[in-house]
Structures are given as C-alpha cells and as structure tokens.
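Recap from last week: sequence in, structure out.
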Amino acid sequence: MTDRQIVRGRVFGSLPWEEDFGCARAVAVGDQVYVAGCTAWVDGQIEREGDPFTQTLSAFGIGLEALAAYGLTADHVVRTRMYISHLRDVDEVGRAHKQLFDAVRPVATMVVVDGLIDSRMLVEVELDAYRAGLAQTLEGQQ
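Predicted structure tokens:
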C-alpha cells in the first residue's frame, strides 16, 4: 500500500488517477470524513480478480485505511455505498459488508452499474464517517 498523507483535511497517495482527475481518497469536513473511489486496486494491480467477496473486503479495507489516517475506525462509519458491475454479485458483496459492519450497522446502498473504470473491478465502495470533535482534533494537528 502507498503511504497516506493528510493535506488540508484530504488524504492522498493511493490512486493512480488522483493527479489526472483532481481528486483525493478522503476529505474531512467538520466532524465528518468522506471516502470514495475504493476498489481492489493495490500497488498498480487488481487484487482478487473475479472474486466479488474478497474484492469487497479489499475495497473496504482501503477505505478503512483512509479513515485510520484521521484516527477513525469502522465504528465511526455511518454510511456505505457499494457500486457493483454484476447483479450476480449482490450476495457476495453483501456478505463482505456484513462481515465488516454487522456490529456497526451503517446505512447502506448497493447499486448495479454498467461498469467501473477497469472491467476487472467488480465493486467500488464509498464510506462516510462521523466522530464528534474530529474537526478540533484535526485543527490541533495542523
């Protein structure tokens, strides 16, 4: 994994498209953190090709790693979104979500899309997290 770096409340360092598209992995706004663009893309390769369950675990793992840069964990996640490229993968993606978030029970959305940026990617996820006082903590670090 690439090192994460927080700059002005944003986490950078893990997407090959960050510079090309002008985006960040995560952004903190007040006491909330928004994480997007998480797939099984690791070190320039698609991990676990053809396996929606493990790709989902990998994608959420990358998202949780971005949250960790802010000192947050799965317990702080309040919303998840899962974009999947095949209807057949609903159960496996849902099973992975349950494994990670069953105790937390964030609100969740799963949507079937025509495709993702790479056809080998079966799932892309987003996480929204909240922790009271996070903004004050981040201001103290800058």
